[in-house]
Design a protein that fits this description.
single chain, alpha+beta, five-stranded antiparallel sheet, two-stranded antiparallel ribbon, 6 helices, 7 strands, 34% helix, globular, Vitamin B12 dependent methionine synthase, activation domain protein, methyltransferase
Length: 253
Amino acid sequence: MWLAAFPQEERAKAAEAMQLFKEANRVLNRLDEEITVQCIYRLCSANAEGDNLLIEDTVFPLLRQQTPHPDGSPFLCLSDFIRPLSSGVADTIGLFASSVSAESENYYKDDPYKHLLVQTLTDRLAEAATEKMHEHVRKVVWGYAPEESLSIPDLLAEKYQGIRPAVGYPSLPDQSVNFILDELLDMKQIGITLTENGAMYPHASVCGLMFSHPRSHYFAVGKIGEDQLEDYARRRGKPIDEMRKFLAANLKS
């Protein structure tokens, strides 16, 4: 019946999609029996000082947009969504990490198609666990949205209050801040280790920040100039060439 709903010329592609769905569910059933998905989170006192977050005793440098917007809207930085230090009042920020157990890395290594399917599914499982964790934090642990009651489509449309930008995503593009998050979260508690470049292992892992500000929203930092790169390297306490490597995709040509 599902296939019959498609025009004749699209049914071959729809049949392939249906087969993929069936195979993914078979693999998912195996994963469900053999792997674990774990999350860790922490709520910390925080303030903003310029483009830095001050998370308890740790400085967490951030980047600010530099490319003008056609509508003249402000140049955003994630620190804009945290109460400034000059206010004299502490704010709260959330930190999180989620990961799928490493044994999944070895499944179907001799079958490239199924191995890729496992990688795709475990990535989605890590993201799904993060979504569930974030809901629990909003409604219970942090408790700033105790009456929240959203459907799955509404959750997927991010209709809740607050955001959780992950490291490597457009508003938090510098992978090296994983080292700062690891100091604050101790991610090895859920089996996550970092390479010398700050990449997470197992690969089906995600980490980042949680903001509760009602007007917080996702954005892309976009391209930055040499002036901000130099300032950011200084705030990170790293050589500018090292930061240039981590931010190559964000540098103006």
